[in-house]
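cron nightly-structures :: item 1 of 1
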Amino acid sequence: MQVPSASSLRERQLEGGFLFPAYDDWCFSRIPGTVGSLLGADVGPELPTAATEGYDDVERVVVFLVDGFGLAQWDGARSYTPLLRQFEHDGRVTPLTSVYPSETAAAMNTFHSGVLTSEHGVIGWNVYEPAVDEQFEALPFLRKDGTKPEGMAYEDIANAESVYRDFDEAGVEVHQVTPFPNGGTVPHEYDPEDLSTFPDAFEEAAEESSDADGPTYVFAYLPQTDAIAHGEGVDSEEYRKTVEETFENIECALDSLAEHTTGEDAGETLVCLTADHGLIDTGHNIDLSEPPFDLVPKLKTLTEGTPIRFSGSPRNVNLHLQDEHVEAVYETLSSELDAKVFRKREVLGMELFGPDPSPTFERRVGDLVVVHRELGVWFGDEEPHALEFVAMHGGLHPDEMLIPFATATLDSLR
C-alpha cells in the first residue's frame, strides 16, 4: 500500500462534505503502535508499512505533537516556517485522519493508550458518567465549578491502560517533555505559558535518552497554537506569531538533540512531527438553550435536578435527552441545522467513535450526537464563552480531521 496524498485520502473518507476517520489504516490512532514497532515494542495497531518505509535500524524516536496543527494549518504556515519545508524536502509527510471526535481529550487518551474512543470512553472535553451521576471536564478532571467529581478517581476517566507499560516491558525507555507528568515515563516538565522553558526541558530528555543503553522514545507536547486559535482564530496575526514561536523552539530542541547525538546515532534517530487534530474558524455559533431549540427542559437531569448540558463539545454535541423527546429533537435539529445528527444506534452501527464499544463508552455516548458542518453548537445559558470561540475542533470538517505525520532522520534535518 502506497502513502496516500492528502487529496486522495480526503476523497476516500469524505461523505457529503464530512470527513470520517480512516480507522483501518491511515489514522492518528495508529501512531503509538508504529512508534512501538520501530523500537521493537508491540503496543497496538500500526500505520501501513509505507508510512515508515526506509527507516531501518531506528534506535530512538522523537515525536513532537503540536496540538491543533492540522494539514490545513501546515499548508498555511509552510511559507514562513522553514522546518515544515525541510520535512517535505528531506523527509516524508504522510496525511492521516484524526479520530472522532477530533478533540484533544479523546485523541490524547488514544495516543497514550493505543485504543479508540469507543473503548476508552472519553467522548470529548466534557463527559457525563451515569454510573456516578457526574458531568465533568476530562481535562483537567473537574466539574464546571472547579470541584472534583465524587465516586470516581482520575484513573476512571478513561477505560484504558497506558501503552508505556508495553514500552517498558520491551526495554524501551520513554521520556516525555510536557507541561504535566505522565505515569510510566521519565518526565521533563516545562511551563506552557512560557515557551522559552521548553528547550531546556527538552535538552534534559535529549541528553538522558542519548545516554540510555537501549532504544528510547521521546515525546514532546506543545499545546500553544491550539490555545491561541480558540480566542483569535487561525487567520489571525496572534496565531501566526504563536506558530513561529512554537517552531523556533522546536528548532532549538532539534539543535540540542543533535548536540547530544553522535554522527552514527543521528541516522538511527527518527524525528516525527504530528498533531491530534486541525482547526476551523467558525461564525455565528448556535445556542441550543434559545429558540427554536429550547433544549434545556428536554434534557435528562442529574439526580439533584441539574440538566445534563455538558457532554462532548460544541463541535461534537452529545445530547442526553428524556426518552419521550429524542425523536422530536432529532427532527428539529435535522431540519434547522446544517449538521449530521446521529441517533445512538446509528453511532454504534457506523462505528463513528470506533468499533467494539466498551460498556463505559455505551453509557457515556449521547442519545443524539450532533456534528455541525462548520459552526459551534452549545448551551449559552451556562457557557456563553464557548460560543464565542473563533477557532474550534471536534467535528468532521476536513480541516479538523486531516493531520500530518511528518518523518525524517535527525541527520537529514541537521
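cron nightly-structures :: done
The chain has two domains: 6-114+164-280+398-413, 123-157+283-388.
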